[in-house]
Amino acid sequence: MCKRIPFFRIFLAALLGIFLDANCQPSLPAWIVVLALFISTTVCFVQSTLITQWKWGWILGTSIIGILIAIGGISNALRSNSRKGYPSLDTSIVLLSITEGPKQGSASNRYLAKVYKADQPMPEALLNTYVYIKKTDSSTIMPGDVLLSMNIPQPLKKNANPGAFDFTTYSNRNGIGFTVMLEGPYQYIKLAQSAPNSKGWTYIVREKIMAIIRKYIKNKQNAGLAEAMLIGYREDLDKELLNAYTNTGVVHIIAISGLHLGLIFMLMDLLIRTMVGRKRAAWAGLLISLPLLWSFAILTGSSASVIRSAIMFSFIIVGKAIGRKSNGMNSLLGSACILLLWNPDLRFDLGFQLSYAAVASILLFDQKIKQLVFFKNKAALYLWSMVSITLAAQVLTTPLVIAHFHRFPTLFLFTNLVAVPLSSLVLVMEIVLCLIHPFEGMAKGLGATINMLIQLMNDHVLLMGNIPFGMVDQIHISNTMMLLVCLYTAAWYSLFKSPSRFIFLCLALLGLGLPVMHLIESIQTSKTKEIIVLNTYGAATIIHRHGKYGTLTASASFLDSKKKTKELLRQTGLALGIEHWNIQSFPNNPVMISLQETQQIMPWVLLCHAKSISLNNLKDEIKKEILLLADASTPVWKIKQWEKEAQKLHLRFKSIPEEGPHTIRCHQTQ
Prior knowledge:
Blueprint: H1 7-24, H2 28-46, H3 50-55, H4 58-82, E1 94-104, E2 108-117, E3 127-134, E4 145-149, E5 154-155, H5 167-173, E6 176-182, E7 188-193, H6 198-216, H7 220-231, H8 239-247, H9 258-276, H10 278-287, H11 289-299, H12 304-321, H13 328-342, H14 350-370, H15 378-405, E8 408-409, H16 412-436, H17 440-465, E9 471-472, H18 479-497, H19 501-527, E10 529-533, E11 541-546, E12 549-555, H20 556-559, H21 562-576, E13 580-586, E14 591-595, E15 604-608, E16 627-630, H22 636-649, E17 652-655, H23 656-659, E18 662-665
Parallel strand pairs: 3-6, 12-13, 15-16, 16-17
Antiparallel strand pairs: 1-2, 1-4, 2-3, 4-7, 5-6, 8-9, 10-11, 10-18, 11-12, 14-15
């Protein structure tokens, strides 16, 4: 296999280097020394005698693997060093160079910008920051603009509740560590419109395409879906419709992925072969298809799945040009190796994981499933090929879907059989619409047809989503269980590929290990007792957990919103393993909740809705060993005041809005 798929060893070595750096955290100079040592060994071995090379040949292979491991470690170390710290800026005025945006919000638009110190003659980019500007003030702001900001960007704080999306970690992995709010025109000055860069041109082209779609597809909901399918713009997507596509397992139709790029590649390849003939098609593809594919990848936002497809198709195009056949799995691992060395943090990206898992699953299992049934009828054979590729893609993606979304669409096959062909047809017609839009009459007719097909697809997805047994929800799977499931799947594949006693023994042990591990995790969960003070804006929320039973005590104002309460219970329940809930409320009045000292935990006091309370008045009642907690039910200005008072009185104090939820593990509570 290693000879047929040379990138297999390269990928594993680079991945090992990345994981070694992430877990052991050696310094960058240490990795450079290791790299230099292996390179020196390789050079010395190549310069040695033939007898030495024949006798000690394994040294060369080991040195090359060592070089690849060191390169992976250096790549991750450089990425880690570039985002270390995120200290506060020691300046009063900064320059913001807008690089991406706008991303539409309910009240503000979000941009991405590079930060420069304004008091330097030759400013250097310090960091990346989110910039929030009110919609009424951001109509003229676009990528390439330079703003003089009167507000200083502040570091993002990690304060996500259990089970909630960790926006800070996500941003840090993308090299973004700050945020700044420009609430009015007097908080910034637009200095200049810089020369349009590639992202500026991308923004202009995207706006032009969206204008065409909105003009000829009259239904707003369908136009939003058409924008997402063609260029990945999801701001106009209807949320309920997006949830329906997610719950039925066809959200990959909306997200720009290899499916879209593959369809475009086939269209371009067919067009090139028709125009220049088969003999010249290889070199014509190199000159035409390659630039167009990468232009489309950049236009749609350069997501991991799109870049993966672009690299794989680039391998195919270059291979055709030089007369070499490409191996699908080798191209897949080659693209993964390139992406991970460029950005090691992509291994955490859900799109990256699902994209590679789906393609690897298709390459490994599609032919095996397809060979189970044979049809002479071409229509039946085509239908079965669609079924087999859909089933194959689910083999490796199912554990990831359950681990990340805690749900599984049981009717994904029936939804995909209708939605995928329709979406492919719609995508082709959208491309044609953009090409013929100057011809008003033809464009109107095509736009109406696209609108009808999208509506048909939406109706089918909504119908499948309304079937009661179409979704298995509230599935919890730990990382250990997911690893065992993946090993179990690999054992089954190996058993069908080349049966042996060893593989059968592994399969039996893994089959036994899955229920045993589930039992162990259930016992551990049932014995866990803890109190968690959550971070919910404008409200006090406390969870008292006892195994699989939990009590949510929250402000009456928070519990009035059934949607917020349901979402909080769903997120925390899945994260903590709580299956049964009891809900209690306490009033929106000043409250002090105290926990007496026990053998297991230190005493603490929680201040809720307590903006009228002063710590100076409580200094005689509060012991110094007591931990004071201020949750998000109290305004930020009051929490800042308490922090200063606690510092003067030498009291322990924690701000939940700034530092995140606080967990107290215990065995006995009062």
